[in-house]
Amino acid sequence: MLSTNAFDRKLQISGVILIVGLVVESLCLLSGSPIGFILFVGVGGLLIGIGILYYLYSLASSASSSVK
Amino acid sequence: MLTISLFVLIGLTVALIAVFVFRPQITQTQAGKIAAFLALFALPVLCAGMGASSELLHAKSTKFCLSCHIMEPYGQSLRVDDPTHLAAAHFQNHRVSPDEACYTCHTNYAMFGGIKAKLGGLKHIYVYYLGTPPSPENIKLYEPFNNRECLHCHAGARSFEEGAVHTADPELLPALRTNKVSCISSGCHEVVHDVKDLKNSKFWNGGS
Predict the structure, then answer these.
(1) Which end of chain A is less packed: N or C, by CB atoms within 10 Å?
(2) What is the pTM of this model?
(3) What is the ipTM for the molecules in this complex?
(4) What are the residue boundaries of the structural domains of chain B, listed by start?
């Protein structure tokens, strides 16, 4: 399932993290309860943040390896 | 409406991200790189921002505040059939929006007051789920209620400025404005949420 290419693999991992984060956020939006609000910020927001940062890291590491 | 468009946006974002998860080699082309940036950066940021905005808006609602069981008596106190009960009179006569009744009076109308109110809300959730919540009748405000929150609406209103009781003593209005005398002090609007005596109260069942 995961690509053998390092950049593609990082892209896939960040994509999966982002999808999980977005699904969590959707479920929290549906719940509308105070605990949903906490999960929205604490879990959904965290996963989306990690997914985005990992994608940016994959871009940066790919750019630095191509410079070498 | 915002929620529907948000769900559509999240759905489209998830679908677009899934394309890159299953076909990461698309990013080898220039157009693929731009699409990947949109799918994996711009759209998730937009979804998170819109979601946070929607959640914060929802967190102002009366329904949200009363969804904790501990707050139920306070919700009931809004329907007490007695005009001397301050919160009930405001709620039933739409002096505050019934949909945002708790937030309208309990937010802080100073600079960064909204943020302070949200942080206070997070503290409530922490105490409710992880701490030892007090019984409803023993809940206390973190700090005494500031007249500023009342005057945010009432200052300048004729009923407030020219009210017989308010003008009987010429020192009262300045004292209220400077928070030296509380609006909810004894002998004035002292009954706010009388949750201890709800069993003996008559309730108004009108409204939505």
Answers:
(1) C
(2) 0.80
(3) 0.91
(4) 2-58, 63-145+184-200
